[in-house]
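so my prof wants the structure for this chain in the tokens format not the other one, which i didnt know existed until like an hour ago. anyway here's the sequence
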Amino acid sequence: MPFTPSTVPQAIAFRQFVDSETGKPVEKDDQVKGYEVGSGDYVVLEPEEIAAAVPESEKTLLISAFIACGEIDDVYFDKPYYLATIKSHAEDAFALIREGMRKKKVAAIARAVLFRRVRTLLIRAYEDGLIATTLNFDYEVRSAEDAFDEVPDLKIQGEMLELAEHIINTKRGKFDPAKFDDRYENALAELVRAKLEGKKIEPRKEPKREKVVDLMEALRQSAGVKAKKTNATTPTKKKATRAAKTKEATPRRKAS
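here's what i got, hopefully its the right format
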């Protein structure tokens, strides 16, 4: 039985569809679902057609392979779910597969129907149970090569590298999720509470921003390091531009 690790019972959400031409909200009765086949060109899908395409859930996990735990790039990770048994007679099998994977340091690739979609899952041993992480499909993950295509190819050396190492060493720490809060969600909760109590909503004052003239000098001051007369970067060969590419990946679209 999968259930999310999140303990947040309800989040504040806003959703409204707006006509791209008029800018006016689209009423619910006028909303349809469709698949984009070209710029501004859609194939409209009827509710009964979509319902017929939804796969039936057999409430089972079909394991296809066992792989090394670190074999999948975490850019494919989507959302984690805890896995636990709901029937007592399945506890032995559950413990067997959990301890087997833990001993061999492997994870399982499985498929299951979740929320009307066939999803690929990465299942790992986790404390007294299992954790299943839904994986993004290949078409949902943007190519790193395309994303970083225009990043200049620089060789970092000298003072700049020493400064980076100094900042990292002085800022070393450990991850503690309790130290991080959802400021946006908290701000919205405070706003709702204030409106319920009839309080006047004061606009937030924007913090004063000072223009940074020299980024390196600002980093030195924050780290308490004096400047040295050393070359910081050395440009190497330029990367090929997008125009020089002989082949471009065709973007894949999914139904909305």
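also thought this was worth mentioning. The first strand starts at residue 2 and ends at 3.
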